[in-house]
Specification:
The chain is elongated and about 65 Å long. Strands 1-2-3-4-5 form a 5-stranded antiparallel β-sheet, covered by helices on one side. The protein starts with a helix and ends with a strand. The longest helix has 30 residues. The protein has 134 residues and is α+β, with helices and mostly antiparallel strands. The protein has 2 domains: 50 residues, no CATH class; 70 residues, 2-Layer Sandwich (Beta-lactamase Inhibitory Protein, Chain:B, domain 1), CATH 3.30.1450. Strand 3 and strand 4 form a beta hairpin.
């Protein structure tokens, strides 16, 4: 979800709670928003803990990762799918690579923490250098 929409909904919820129930509604709204933020933080920490315990840049299948990718995917969701941190390939453009046991790898290009482009490379020549969809 777009952060502007999320914060706008939180502000609207707070305003409506204040109008309907006064200070008790305001207290409830702040409690609900804080709980939601804690859930999001807990999710990010859990994903990073799991990814931190795995080998860097390793995935079970590069082809399956390639099939699941789509433009605009945030880095946190990519790490959730791969269950490991990517091996950094370059800083400009920001690029990461995940390799499978067969030697195939997927290289992802990110801009602003969102997936822009990716490339699958397979060593056997079958389907090598499959470009990302338009």
């Amino acid at each position: 979800m777009n952060p502007w929409i999320g914060w706008g909904l939180a502000a609207l919820f707070t305003l409506l709670a204040w109008q309907q129930y006064g200070w008790q509604g305001l207290l409830f709204a702040f409690s609900a928003i804080t709980f939601w933020l804690l859930l999001q933080f807990n999710k990010a920490v859990r994903v990073m803990r799991q990814a931190g315990s795995a080998p860097i840049g390793y995935i079970d299948s590069a082809v399956m990762l390639n099939a699941k990718l789509r433009k605009g995917l945030p880095m946190l969701q990519i790490v959730m799918m791969t269950r490991s941190l990517g091996q950094k390939v370059s800083d400009e453009p920001e690029a990461y690579r995940w390799t499978d046991p067969g030697g195939s790898h997927v290289t992802l290009e990110l801009r602003g923490g969102k997936l822009v482009r990716w490339t699958l490379w397979r060593p056997d020549g079958a389907g090598a250098d499959a470009p990302s969809p338009p």
